[in-house]
Amino acid sequence: MEKVVLGIDIGGTNTEIGFVTRDGKVVAKNHTPTLTNTDFKHYFNALVKAIRRTEQSIKGKYDIVGAGIGAPNGNYLNGCIENAVNLGWGDKVPIIDMLKEEFGYPVCVLSNDANAAAVGEMIFGGAKDFGNFIMLTLGTGLGSGIIINGQLVVGTDGNAGELGHLTVVPGGRECGCGHLGCLENYCSATGMVRTALEFMAYNKVPSVLRDIKPADMTSKDIYDAAQAGDSIALDTFQYTGEILGSAINDMITFSSPEAIVLFGGPTKAGDYILTPTVESMKANKRKFMTNDVKVIISELDGAQAAILGAAAMAWNDIE
Amino acid sequence: MEKVVLGIDIGGTNTEIGFVTRDGKVVAKNHTPTLTNTDFKHYFNALVKAIRRTEQSIKGKYDIVGAGIGAPNGNYLNGCIENAVNLGWGDKVPIIDMLKEEFGYPVCVLSNDANAAAVGEMIFGGAKDFGNFIMLTLGTGLGSGIIINGQLVVGTDGNAGELGHLTVVPGGRECGCGHLGCLENYCSATGMVRTALEFMAYNKVPSVLRDIKPADMTSKDIYDAAQAGDSIALDTFQYTGEILGSAINDMITFSSPEAIVLFGGPTKAGDYILTPTVESMKANKRKFMTNDVKVIISELDGAQAAILGAAAMAWNDIE
Fold this sequence. Notes:
Two copies of one chain form a homodimer.
Chain A: E1 2-10, E2 14-21, E3 26-33, H1 40-58, E4 62-70, E5 74-75, E6 80-82, E7 92-93, H2 95-103, E8 107-111, H3 113-123, E9 133-138, E10 142-148, E11 151-152, H4 189-202, H5 219-227, H6 231-255, E12 259-263, H7 271-283, E13 294-297, H8 302-318
Helix pairs in contact in A: 3-8, 4-6, 5-6, 6-7
C-alpha cells in the first residue's frame, strides 16, 4: 500500500485536513470549522470526527504513517499551541499528545504555519534543491521558516524564525509584539496598506485608494491600482521592496542562504514587488556577499499550500 | 599516546601555533611572523618550518590527529583564504590543501577567526552546555560565529555569520563592506571610538578623551575614562550597549539561541558594557520571546583563545 501522511492546517476560521503522498498528491481532504474561544476539547472532538470520516474514504488503499500540523504559535519542540491569541484556547494546548493518543500514528509533528510552509517548499515545492533557504510568508503579518543544512531551525524554545520582527526602522511603526519598526509592519499585506496611508497623508496626489476605507483596503487593491498606474500604489510597492530587500540582506549576514522564497498575497503582484526588492538587495549588498542569492516566488499551489506544508513536516520527520 | 591537534591562528602580524589536547591543554607552542603582501609560498614555507620544530618537541609523546586554522576570511567550505585584504596574498590561497599535502594529518579544517572562537567556546569554554548560541567578537570589527544544534553555521558560500554587518542604523556610519550603518561601526573597539568622537562633537562637556588624538584612541582609553566618571565615556558605553542589545534581539528573531557569548577588548569593561546591553534587550524584547537569553563573557583565556579556537575546529570535525 502506498504511504500517506495526514496534513492539518489550523487557520483562524477553518481547519483544512488532507492525506498526502510523498509526491505531494492530496488523495483525500476535508475541513471543519476552527472553534475558537471555547474549550479546546470541543474543537478537538470535532477535528477527530472530521479526520475519522476522511480516513474511512481511503481505508484499505493507503497506509497512514504520520501526521503534521501547521498552526499559529505551534511549537515544534513541545507539540503545544502556545498563547495563540486569535484561537483563544489558553496558554498551552498539547495537541500532539492528544493526536497521538487518539490515532496512534508513528510520527506526529507540529509547527507554526510559516515553518510548515518552508518545509513544504523543501519537500514538495521549488526549494527541493536547496539545503539553505529562507521562506517568507507575507500575509496579515510576515512569517518565516529558516532551513539550514536541510534542517528547520527551531531554536532553544521553538521560537526561532520570527524574521517578521527584525527591526527595519528603529523607532518606527507600532508592532503587535510590543516593539517598534518590525519588518512585518512594512512588508506584509497590512504593512503595505499602512504604507499607502502614510503616502496619502504625505502628499495630495490623486489616487483611487483615497476612495477605499482604510479598514477595507487590501494589498490586492494596491495591486489593482498599481496596474492602472496609480502613483501612490506604485510608490507603495517601491517602498515595500526597498525595505524587504534591505532586510533580506540582513538575513544573508546570518545564514548566507541559496535562496529566499516568497509566499502569500502580496507576492501575487510579481514584478511590482520583486523588482524593487532585488534592486534594494543589490544597492545594499555587502562586499563579502559573493553568493548571488535568488529571490523566488513559492511554487506551492496557494489553495493546497497549507495542507502540503503540514504534511511535509511529517514526511520530513519520517525521513 | 594521548591525541593532540595542531591549532594555527593567522593574525595580521603574527601566526601562533600550538598543539592542543581534547581537554584544551596547550602542550607545545610556537609562533612565526605572518609574512604579508608577499608570495604566499614564502610565508607557508616559514610556517611549515615552525610547525616541524614544534612537532619535534612532542615527538613520541603525542599522536597528532588533525589541524585547525583560524584566519581572516578563512572559508570553511573550500579551505581557502579568500581576498584577505590585510594579508595581501591575492584572491584565493588553498592553505588546507597545502597543509594536507605537507603533513598528511587526517583532518585539516579552516575557518575565520570568529567562527573558530565560537567553536572554541563550545569545545573548551563557557558554551559547552549550549547547543544554540552566538559568539560575538568585538575588536577592530565585530565578528560572529553562530552555532545551531551544535553545528557551526557556514551557509552556502562559507560566508554565514557576518553579523557585524547587520544594519542597525539605516543610512548611518560608513562601513568597509560598502553599506551604511552596520553593527560593527557602533559595537566594536573602533566603533566605540567613533561614538566618543560623535559625542564630543555634539556637546562641549569636558572629557579626558579630548586630550587623546583620535588616531590613538582605543576602547581601553574609553574604559579608563569611564572608571574616572567621564561622562562622554559613560555615554559611549551606554550607547554601545543600547545598539548591541537591540541587535542581539534581532539575532534572537533568527535562531532563538540559549546564549550570546561576548569576546574581545571592549568586553573587558564588564558591567559598563553588559548592563546597558541587557537593559536594551529587555526594553526591545518581543512578546513572543519566552526564552531568557543569557549574555555572558567568553571564558577563554585571551592569550590562548585564538590557538584554542583553531584547535577546537579540528576537534569538532573529528567528533
